[in-house]
Write a structure and sequence with these properties.
The complex is a heterodimer of chains A (about 120) and B (about 190). With about 120 residues, chain A is of the alpha+beta class. Chain A has a domain at about 40-110. Chain A contains 4 helices and 6 strands; from the N terminus they run ααβββββαβα. In chain A, strands 1-4-5-6 form a 4-stranded mixed beta sheet. Chain A has a two-stranded antiparallel sheet with strand order 2-3. The longest helix of chain A is centred in the last third of the chain and has 17 residues, at about 80-100. The model of chain A is unreliable at about 1-5 and about 120-125 (pLDDT under 50). In chain B, the strands form 2 sheets. In chain B, strands 4-3-2-5-6-7 form a 6-stranded mixed beta sheet. Chain B starts with 9 loop residues before the first strand and ends in a 6-residue tail after the last strand. Classes of the chains: A alpha+beta (about 120), B alpha/beta (about 190). The interface of A and B includes residues 35, 39, 117 and 122 of A.
Amino acid sequence: MNNQGAEEERYAYYRGRKPPRFVTESEREAARILDYYRIPWMYEPRTFILEQDEAGNILEAFTPDFYLPELDVYIEVTQMKQSLVTDKNRKVRKMAEKYPEVRVKLLYKRDFMILARKYDLTLPM
Amino acid sequence: MTMDRAAPKIFLTEQQIAKRVSELAAEISADYQARKSPLLLVSVLKSAVVFLADLAREITVDVELDFMAISSYASEAPGQRSGETRGVRFLKDLDQPIAGRDLLIVEDVIDTGLTLHYITRSLRLREPRSLEICTLLDRPYRRLVDLPVRYQGFTAPDDFFIGYGFDQRGRFRNLPYLAFADEEAS
């Protein structure tokens, strides 16, 4: 069994077809938290087009990290670097303008810290 | 009282907390005064206990108290294999059935709402007559899960606190006020 397979087995509430391929440790920790709270989740199930040129080429897109089907909400986990946080905030704002019916929430470093303090998490940062 | 630390910066004084607790209790008393059975105040151990004690004594309708405890994210269940999927669970459940009862969950602070989502989802399966939420502190801007919070004490900034039930490594819960915690010491 490779590592990817092992990761697939560990998440009881993962509802995607393919094993999740997390890019950051923050995403992996967020997956553990969702699993811990028994909340079904999917990893990057949908990409939203934010901007296209006249020929239809995609100029900007946004793929939120998680989708929680029971709660019908997307979650984007933010990085530590302020520049990345700012960029994600901008994309979430743009999402809200273009897809007002879709709910996207940001999970900040601070949220991990609060959960860590309350529940003795091992922080990935 | 010796606390081995410099005087903390106060977020809410004892008087400010007492005033708001009285207001919340008056609102709750008015809302539940026509009910025939006692209102069941449910608290999740441990931080909300001080708030619960003050609130319960200000409420003028008949109340009963009960407590729950949930597992820590980091704790391993006895006999659990390393790497095995863990999930939140009740370490201490309510002592009584709640079908047909009016429940008010009394919380210290609500952030993402993940914990309370699990608790309310579990308790609603037991078919209480009503289930409402009262929290001393709320950070609605941190919410991942939408929760109907009926009674809210204060909207809190994004800081850690000590006192009035809030701890730092188990200490300072008995301070009568809410102060900003020294995050370096967390």
